[in-house]
Amino acid sequence: MEQLAVSVKESIQSMESRIRLEEIRMLHGGMMFSILGTFAVSLIMFFVLYKHASSTLYLALWFGIMMLSSLLRGWDTYCFINASPDEQVKESWGTRFLIGSTFAGFWWGMLAWLGYSVENEYQTLIVVCIVGVAGGSLATLSYRWQTIVFFIMPALLLLELRLMLENSDFTQVLSYLLAVFILFALSTSRRAYKNSNQNVKLRIEADYNEKALREAKNEAEQANAAKSTFLSNMSHELRTPLHAILGYAQLLEHGDALSQKQSCNIGEIKHAGNLLLDLVNQILDLAGIEEGNLNISMASIALDEVLKECKSLVQPLADEKNIYVDITDTTIQVHADYIRLKQAILNLLTNGIKYNYNNGSVIIKCYHSDNNRVRIDVIDTGRGISREQQVLLFKPFSRLDPEGEIEGTGIGLSISRQLIEKMHGTIKVESDIGKGSTFSIELDSHLPEDDVTEDVVQCIDNNATIQSVKNKDNLKILVVEDSLPNLRMIEYQLEVLGYKADLATDGNEALQLFRNNHYGLIITDCNMPIMNGYELTSIIRNEDKSDIPIVALTADAFPEREEQCLAAGMNARLIKPMSLEVLNAAIDQWLSNTLPGKLPKSTRG
Ligand code: ADP
């Protein structure tokens, strides 16, 4: 708190000194105009009054002093302009300017004394000249209240005094008029000062705000970059051991003679591992969306297809609680990204089941809403969500389940909302405690012509079911991985799938093996000591001109990494942890290109 007060005080002080600096800069900025004006008006007055002033000597003295004062003030301005910003802040500039203005004002007033003429016309001319100079100074000196007052007051008061000392009616009238003008000049200069001061303040405040905004933006960008590096590292660090945990658990499942208890234990390991994997994936999704790294591929999608797929995925979960899941048949087409829409609907359906009572129901209804958009309602008969909690619902990490007995991460709805918004849609909730909730997604029903993006990145579909390659005996796979447990695990996985493999722990070792053997496929880790997977691929592609399929196996799930893999010449990327099914699908996909008739250049002999 104290620190905050100090920083507020400091920023007020620095703002005030900026205002003072700005004022003095503007005063000096108008100096050139003042000097030229003074020079021209003094010269005219000198020549006009030359033959009519009571004393030519005094008039010449006045003219000389005016010239000298202009020169001194001009010199001061010259010094100010050439001073460094640090020096310009000094208070002494203001004091010197004030003294210079007072001096100039005094000598303008002295025109009425030193250039005095008995002739009424010339007296009037002097009055007009001094009043004009005072009026003109409002434009150049009103940036500081003291400066303008200390300039016009000596000039006008000396003139007033001179007029009052005259005994003629004419000068008396002039003196009354001048008195009125003095009051008028004071109030006008006050107003002019206030206006210009306000303008300066507003300009400086705008500068400050802009600077603060820029700094805040930079800080936010830096924090975001740090966050994404952290997430990328964290994802990598978590995926690597998860890869081993889930992979070995799956291999154990394939072993013989497991007792029921052992199978159960393995099931628990897989369940916990998958839960952790879910969390890692969701956090990555969230980070990707926040960074704007989410690729959305909009197309016209048959809702029926998405909903049926979702239903089949959640059915086992619904069966556990005997929850009835129903989807109304629909022919509606929606404008969305298939995968991302499926992800959002799946999240709503899973929540509808998770936060439901046993024997409850979850119904999905689709229809055209009033605004001609497509609406998907996910209606559950669960516990419901209070109004206060509804506000928090779509914020990341909001777990509203009071007992926390239901597994979850609290990120799903926040991701769903951002995905739907990315597809130009909306998502909202209506709920009654104890009665259930209705989550509604609204999307466009047609496909705008110019909004279709093609997903060009080639990747392995994790749900793909691909026919197995038949003649596995003729094909060998080269596996490159620096983590020994992971290397052994892939070897076992390949063994279970019926493939032979050679193993290497870095790119250099792999290169030697590649040059002396014949492989149908290379599966390589990306980050390894001595030679990483990208370098290995580049060398194979450039030196050997080989088109052997190379598939990356990495724990880094960020989209940029996929681009990096493809740019290095790899054919696809697999993300750790990877199930036997995914590995099998990937191998089938890439080995089928290397079967007889389609032999890659590296398959020599
Ligand atoms: P998760 O379910 O993984 O915790 P979500 O972001 O999907 O994360 O949901 C956030 C919270 O909102 C949940 O923890 C739950 O308390 C509440 N919630 C979501 N959907 C429902 C629902 N259909 N009925 C009751 N509560 C729900």
3D structure, described in words:
With 605 residues, this protein is α/β, with parallel strands linked by helices. The chain has four domains: 2-216, no CATH class; 240-291; 299-452, 2-Layer Sandwich (Heat Shock Protein 90), CATH 3.30.565.10; 472-593, Response regulator (Rossmann fold, 3-Layer(aba) Sandwich), CATH 3.40.50.2300. The chain is built from 19 helices and twelve strands. The strands form three sheets. The protein has a five-stranded mixed sheet. A five-stranded parallel sheet has the order 9-8-10-11-12, with helices on both faces. The chain has a two-stranded antiparallel ribbon with strand order 1-3. The longest helix has 86 residues, at 169-254. It is elongated, with a radius of gyration of 42 Å. The model is unreliable at 448-470 and 595-605 (pLDDT under 50). Adenosine-5'-diphosphate (ADP) binds next to helix 12 and helix 14. Adenosine-5'-diphosphate binds next to helix 12 and helix 14.
